[in-house]
Design a protein that fits this description.
Blueprint lengths: L6 H18 L16 E3 L5 E4 L12 H14 L7 H4 L3 H14 L3 E5 L2 H6 L11 E5 L4 H8 L4 E5 L4 H10 L6 E6 L11 H10 L3 E5 L14 H4 L8 E5 L10 E5 L1 H10 L1 H4 L6 H16 L2 H19 L11 E7 L1 H13 L2 E2 L1 E3 L9 E6 L6 H18 L1
Parallel strand pairs: 2-11, 4-5, 4-6, 6-7, 7-8
Antiparallel strand pairs: 1-2, 3-9, 8-9, 10-13, 12-13
Helix pairs in contact: 2-12, 4-12, 7-8, 13-15
Bound molecules: pyridoxal-5'-phosphate.
The site of pyridoxal-5'-phosphate has 14 residues, from helix 5.
């Protein structure tokens, strides 16, 4: 029997037609190339300088001189890469110190580091739960939580974003399962709203469930001293599991973590696949993480600036007649409702030197198109003023 042919030829045309569909739906993602460090002002490869309002650089640490200094020193003392997973020969004193400091910061019992929060969430459920158990997940949870849930055999329940009545319904349905865990983002990235963790905890108690919060967008941003949603609701140390990233407020490089109850973290170290089978984060990145934790413990100046900037921006925009979703974080959704308007406005703002992103269906619900503005402690008043003026000018031009 002879089976001939050129498989890739057929596969290629299959991919090409899918890519064409993505493009004609206006969903094709092009990457803008930066040739400067990440910061409030960036330079793109065409030499254009723009003000950046779409980074997760909440505390302005992406290009921090203090962190760069720590990284340089650690490069000399501990080298560049670990060439190993943690449990073989990929653990340094710095990795251990960072885990301890993260636990201290969140008031938790133990912490496990990952290469990214995506891995932390991808590797958290499968080692802990089986088909006898239940995961009750917010409908707007991050893709990494969704993937983590998919990798686990536990029964899945989904509740409408931050909807406590629906959560209660799902908890009732999940009663026959052995163990239950409710999972939510701390801050949702499209609206900037905070999960109602106080109420979620009440329901968890009433219906006998555990709680996991992903603090990726909220750690360093929410709570009086930046300890996230659990601090915001006075629940420090109360939830069973917290996941988070070093890639947003906490420096912006790379790395993620899961922190919480001792036995849970212990089991993750034994069984969590992205931890067991993926490289250890570089010592210099861990050292920068340690430095960030020290900064967070030392004071709240950056956080205060971030809050002041966010308030200034939203107040001025509302004064100017823009429709801003109420935010409790550093994410400001400028509501435009119409996808075309959001797209065109973002393009025109870029021409004015303001880099923001328009979001529309299917990333947000139909008819809820918006421009998402992300504020940073590194923004100066003049940056904010320039953005506010540009929004005003473009809105006038378009209407
Ligand atoms: C950004 C984000 C992640 C992924 O973080 P990485 O460390 O970049 O993988 C996970 N969860 C939430 C809620 C996020 O916002």
């Amino acid at each position: 029997m002879k089976i001939g042919g050129d498989m890739y030829k057929r596969f290629k045309s299959h991919l090409q037609s899918q890519l064409n569909d993505i493009e004609s739906a206006g969903l094709y993602k092009n990457e803008r190339t930066l040739i400067s460090p990440q910061g409030p002002e960036i330079t793109t490869s065409d030499g254009k300088k723009v003000l950046n309002f779409c980074a997760n650089n909440y505390l302005g640490l992406s290009n921090s001189p203090e962190l760069k200094e720590v990284v340089r020193k650690t490069l000399d003392s501990h080298g560049y890469g670990m060439s190993s997973v943690r449990f073989i020969c990929g653990t340094t004193d710095i990795h251990k110190e960072l885990e301890q400091r993260i636990s201290d910061f969140f008031g938790t019992e133990d912490t496990i580091l990952y290469a990214a929060a995506f891995d932390a969430n991808g590797g958290v459920f499968e080692p802990l739960l089986t088909n006898e158990d239940a995961i009750i997940s917010d409908s707007l949870n991050h893709a990494s939580i969704i993937d983590g849930v998919r990798l686990c055999k536990a029964k899945r329940f989904r509740y409408t974003n931050a909807d406590l009545e629906d959560l209660e319904d799902q908890l009732i349905q999940a009663q026959p399962q052995r163990f239950r865990i409710i999972v939510t983002d701390g801050v949702f990235s499209m609206d900037g709203n905070v999960a109602p963790l106080d109420k979620i905890m009440e329901l968890a108690e009433k219906y006998d469930a555990m709680v996991m919060v992903d603090e990726s967008h909220s750690a360093g941003v929410i709570g009086e001293t930046g300890r996230g949603t659990t601090e915001h609701f006075n629940l420090l140390g109360k939830v069973e599991i917290i996941s988070g990233t070093l890639g947003k407020a906490f420096g912006g490089a790379i790395g993620g973590f899961t922190t919480g109850k001792k036995e849970i973290i212990d089991m993750l170290r034994q069984r969590s696949r992205p931890y067991l089978f993926s490289n250890s984060i570089p010592p210099m990145v861990a050292a920068a993480g340690v430095e960030v934790m020290k900064m967070m413990e030392a004071g709240t100046d950056r956080l205060a600036t971030l809050r002041e900037n966010t308030r200034y921006f939203t107040d001025k925009m509302i004064e100017n007649g823009f429709d801003i979703k109420p935010t409790q974080s550093a994410i400001c959704a400028v509501m435009l409702y119409d996808a075309k308007v959001a797209q065109e406005m973002a393009a025109r703002l870029l021409e004015e030197g303001i880099y923001v992103i328009g979001f529309y269906f299917p990333v947000v619900p139909q008819g809820e198109a918006r421009i998402r503005v992300q504020i940073s402690a590194a923004h100066k008043k003049e940056h904010l003023d320039k953005a506010i003026e540009a929004f005003q000018k473009v809105a006038n031009d378009m209407k």
